[in-house]
Each structure stands twice: as structure tokens, then as C-alpha cells.
Design brief:
One of its GO terms (biological process) is lipid metabolic process. It holds the Pfam family GDPD. Residues 2-234 form the GP-PDE domain. It is a single chain. This protein has 238 residues and is an alpha/beta fold. The protein has a single domain (3-35, 101-237), classed as TIM Barrel, CATH 3.20.20.190. Helices cover 34% and strands 19% of the residues. It has nine helices and nine strands. The protein has helices spanning 19-27, 68-72, 89-96, 117-127, 141-150, 166-173, 187-195, 208-217, 227-237, and strands at 3-7, 32-39, 45-47, 102-107, 134-138, 154-159, 177-181, 200-203, 221-224. It has an eight-stranded parallel barrel with strand order 1-2-4-5-6-7-8-9, surrounded by seven helices. Strand 6, helix 6 (166-173) and strand 7 (177-181) form a beta-alpha-beta unit. The chain is globular, with a radius of gyration of 17 Å.
Length: 238
């Protein structure tokens, strides 16, 4: 069965990776939520996509060079009157206790390797007792190996380059699933994964025709900026 994951929340309509986007995603009835995490200078974990705050906030600087307090003083740049802030992972996990969504935490440690990020994130999830609702994913394949050693949660290998065999990638890393850019996946590669029992989730599926195509192929997860649209297409197909 295919499931819909809200990519950075309902980010096609609301400011990405904010509590507003996450709460709006929940209201769509979608199965899961996907978001990104980085580590701050004082070893806290915050939910943001980029390595810097430059694009999405009114501030400047790398996450690794800013403390949580400094980050919390910033506001998300958006057209909304409500001033959203960068949430901490603890904030999102605490809110997640109020619903039943599956949570895909992407560790953004492929461009900057945050020493100990894997252990810190896994511990925070354990502190909130949400282990049974977590999928970890990362482009850093060494990080996949670390996660597989320290958690029983599902761990997915992310990739976005053509020419990679997803079955061999999953097998070489002992990954539980594959998360791939839809542009590098083919129906045959997906069938190969399915034959080996490897779930495939594709990002970022936003156009109705693309969503419908991959739903018809039986992919495990639609990762989309528009969860309401994807959920309606999924419900119609079923």
C-alpha cells in the first residue's frame, strides 16, 4: 500500500519545516511527515533544511555556528502574518504525541558532518517514546551504517544520482528502505526493489500525473509538498 508523506510539512502552501506546515499536514489526513534536522553550535537539534538560516529566515549564518537561543530569535521569511520560528526537534516530537503520523526524520549531515548527530537524534526520539513511529533517512551513507547499529527503527538510504542500483545500495548499507529522487527511479528499478522486499519512497512528487503514475506502480511512499492533493489521488485510486 502507498502512503503519503508531507515533505517538510504542507510546504507547497505553508512555510516549510515550521509547526504551521506540520499542523496543516496533519489536517490533510496524510500518513506521514518528513522533515530535516541539523545540529547547532551548542549541540541541540533543530528542524531546517539548509545548512544556513539565510534562505528561510531573517538572519544569516550556518546552523553549526549558531546556538539554539540565537536561532530562536529568528523568524521564518514568509507572506504570513503569523511569525513562524525554526522549531527544535524536541518541540516537534512533543507535538507529535498528539497525533499518529509516521515521522521521517532526515539527518542533513551529508554536506556538513555533525559528530554524534545520529546518537543525539535517536536519544531524543527515545526520550519522547516515539520509536515505533520513526523512519530515519540520510544522504550520508556512513550515517546509515551508524543508525543501523544504534536503533531498531527503519533506516532509509537517500540518493539522487542516476546510475545507482537501489537494490545493491540498500543491500550494501543494510538499509531498510530506499528514498530516491523520482527523476532517477524507473518502474523496473522499483519492481526490482519490490521483489527484494525493499520499500521505495520517492520525492518530491507534486504534479498529479506523476503522483498517479507512481501510485499505479505501487510505490511505498509519496513524498510531496502537497499532501492534500496526493491524499485525494490516493483515496480516489483505492
Amino acid at each position: 500500500m502507498s502512503h503519503v508523506f508531507a515533505h517538510r510539512g504542507s510546504s507547497g502552501t505553508y512555510p516549510e519545516n515550521t509547526m504551521l506546515a506540520f499542523k496543516k499536514a496533519e489536517k490533510t489526513g496524510c500518513y506521514g511527515l518528513e522533515f530535516d534536522v541539523h545540529m547547532t553550535k551548542d549541540r541541540e537539534v533543530v528542524v531546517i533544511h539548509d545548512e544556513t538560516v539565510n534562505r528561510t529566515t531573517n538572519g544569516r549564518g550556518a546552523i553549526k555556528d549558531l546556538t539554539l537561543d540565537e536561532i530562536k530569535k529568528l523568524y521564518i521569511k514568509s507572506g504570513w502574518l503569523r511569525k513562524e520560528k525554526i522549531p527544535s526537534l524536541d518541540e516537534v516530537l512533543e507535538w507529535a504525541k498528539s497525533n499518529e503520523m509516521l515521522i521521517n526524520i532526515e539527518l542533513k549531515n551529508d554536506k556538513i558532518f555533525y559528530e554524534g548527530l545520529e546518537e543525539l537524534v535517536v536519544q531524543k526520539v527515545a526520550n519522547h517514546q516515539l520509536q515505533d513511529r520513526i523512519i530515519y533517512s540520510t544522504f550520508n551513507h556512513e550515517s546509515v551504517k551508524i543508525l543501523k547499529k544504534i536503533t531498531s527503527c527503519e533506516v532509509a538510504a537517500l540518493y539522487s544520482r542516476k546510475g545507482i542500483n537501489p537494490v545493491l545500495l540498500a543491500q550494501s548499507l543494510n538499509a531498510d528502505a530506499i528514498h530516491a529522487n523520482f527523476r532517477v527511479m524507473t518502474p523496473q528499478l522499483m519492481r526490482d526493489c519490490q521483489q527484494h522486499g525493499i520499500p521505495v519512497r520517492l520525492y518530491t512528487l507534486n504534479k498529479p500525473a506523476l503522483i498517479q503514475k507512481w501510485l499505479n506502480e505501487g510505490l511505498s511512499g509519496v513524498i510531496t509538498d502537497y499532501p492534500e492533493l496526493a491524499q485525494k489521488l490516493k483515496d480516489k485510486k483505492e
